[in-house]
């Protein structure tokens, strides 16, 4: 009986996917103006053309993203409510109480795009590589400061991962957002930061910041001459600002697969890739299984960093 029931569900899912969609789709994302918002609008435009139904971008800021995430976690599992969000979707539960479970309440569709963080220092700091920075920090414990744009964000966790893996004592200085944090390094008030590629590349090229390494597992096409942190003496170091798509848990697998295929197709259009590259974003587009595995691995790996650093938001 169970076998026939499972077959019936599969047949129903395939049939639903063939007809999907029959009405507008809601794509929830963060506040307007950020990388996720631009990516969401590129995806919405591509899906609207293919599906012959509007895909409406719903910007939901506030509460560090919890409001947007909970809207989708509680929505019907029919493929008509999607969310495109940063890693805070799965790292927030590590640092604060939330009313959703990233793995239980949501299903991965695809890791849409990624932005590597870049370890940058003020040019006045006498270091030219990750190794010389580690040696300098070890010779002056507690004297170096790093800028924090947002507590628990990828740039913050990257710095704490660096402290843990390199065995150095540097002090975090929090700011009200990424822009003032980056400005503090540009002005020399703070010596270093793990900064997102988009707003940082121009400053590096102008010589106002010195780049030492990227935090991605592989060299970035955005700055191909920069080594990775892992290749610079810290094997296993990897943390990026990933933006991925999810649907409510229980959404039929054929619908998830159809969404994934069309999202990847929309992102890989030449004009879309060019527009994203201009803001320091690279297209990924992996499978739902690969993305789900990455989220799970990230939560385990970053959970250790969060626990070691004692990061908590109440």
Number of helices: 11
CATH topology of the largest domain, anyone? D-Maltodextrin-Binding Protein, domain 2
The H-level CATH homologous superfamily of the largest domain, spelled out, is Bordetella uptake gene, domain 1
Task: Provide the low-confidence segments as ranges.
Answer: none
CA gyration radius, whole angstroms: 21 Å
Order of helices and strands: HEHEHEHEHEHEHEHEEHHEH
- Indicate the proportion of strand residues: 15-25%
Average pLDDT score: 92
Q: Level of helix content?
A: 40-55%
- Overall structural class, as computed from helix and strand content, comes to alpha/beta
CATH class membership of the largest domain: Alpha Beta
Task: Explain this structure.
This protein is an alpha/beta fold and 314 residues long. The protein has two domains: 2-114 and 241-309, Bordetella uptake gene, domain 1 (D-Maltodextrin-Binding Protein, domain 2); 116-232, 3-Layer(aba) Sandwich (D-Maltodextrin-Binding Protein, domain 2). Helices cover 44% and strands 19% of the residues. It is built from eleven helices and ten strands. The protein has helices at residues 2-19, 35-51, 66-73, 88-95, 130-139, 154-166, 178-186, 197-205, 253-267, 270-277, 288-309, and strands spanning 25-29, 55-59, 81-85, 106-121, 145-148, 171-174, 192-196, 210-214, 240-248, 282-283. Strands 1, 2, 3, 4, 7, 8, 9 and 10 form an eight-stranded mixed beta sheet that branches. Strands 5-6 form a two-stranded parallel ribbon. The model has no long low-confidence stretch (mean pLDDT 92).
Secondary-structure blueprint:
Elements: H1 2-19, E1 25-29, H2 35-51, E2 55-59, H3 66-73, E3 81-85, H4 88-95, E4 106-121, H5 130-139, E5 145-148, H6 154-166, E6 171-174, H7 178-186, E7 192-196, H8 197-205, E8 210-214, E9 240-248, H9 253-267, H10 270-277, E10 282-283, H11 288-309
Parallel strand pairs: 1-2, 1-3, 5-6
Antiparallel strand pairs: 3-9, 4-7, 4-8, 4-9, 4-10
Helix pairs in contact: 1-9, 2-9, 4-11, 6-11
């Amino acid at each position: 009986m169970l076998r026939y029931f499972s077959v019936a569900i599969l047949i129903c899912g395939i049939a639903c996917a063939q007809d999907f969609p029959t009405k507008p789709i809601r794509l929830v994302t963060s506040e307007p103006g950020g990388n996720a918002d631009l990516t969401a609008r590129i995806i919405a435009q591509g899906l609207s053309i293919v599906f012959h139904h509007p895909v409406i971008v719903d910007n939901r800021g506030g509460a560090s993203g919890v409001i947007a995430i909970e809207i989708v976690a509680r929505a019907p599992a029919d493929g008509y409510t999607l969310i495109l969000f940063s890693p805070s979707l799965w790292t927030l539960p590590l640092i604060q109480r939330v009313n959703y479970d990233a793995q239980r309440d949501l299903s991965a569709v695809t890791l849409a795009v990624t932005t590597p963080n870049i370890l940058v220092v003020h040019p006045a700091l006498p270091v030219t590589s990750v190794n010389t920075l580690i040696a300098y920090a070890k010779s002056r414990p507690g004297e170096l400061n790093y800028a924090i744009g947002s507590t628990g964000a990828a740039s913050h966790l990257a710095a704490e991962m660096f402290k843990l893996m390199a065995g150095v004592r540097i002090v975090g200085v929090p700011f009200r957002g990424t822009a003032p944090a980056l400005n503090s390094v540009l002005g020399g008030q703070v010596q270093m930061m793990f900064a997102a590629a988009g707003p940082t590349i121009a400053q590096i090229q102008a010589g106002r910041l010195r780049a030492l390494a990227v935090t991605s597992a592989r060299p970035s096409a955005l700055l191909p001459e920069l080594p990775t942190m892992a290749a610079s003496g810290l094997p296993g170091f990897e943390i990026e600002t990933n933006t991925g798509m999810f649907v409510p848990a229980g959404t039929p697998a054929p619908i998830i697969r159809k969404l994934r295929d069309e999202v990847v197709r929309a992102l890989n259009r030449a004009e879309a890739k060019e527009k994203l590259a201009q803001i320091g974003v690279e297209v990924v587009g992996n499978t739902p299984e690969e993305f789900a595995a990455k989220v799970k691995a990230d939560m385990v790996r970053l959970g250790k960093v969060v626990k070691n650093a004692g990061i908590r938001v109440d």
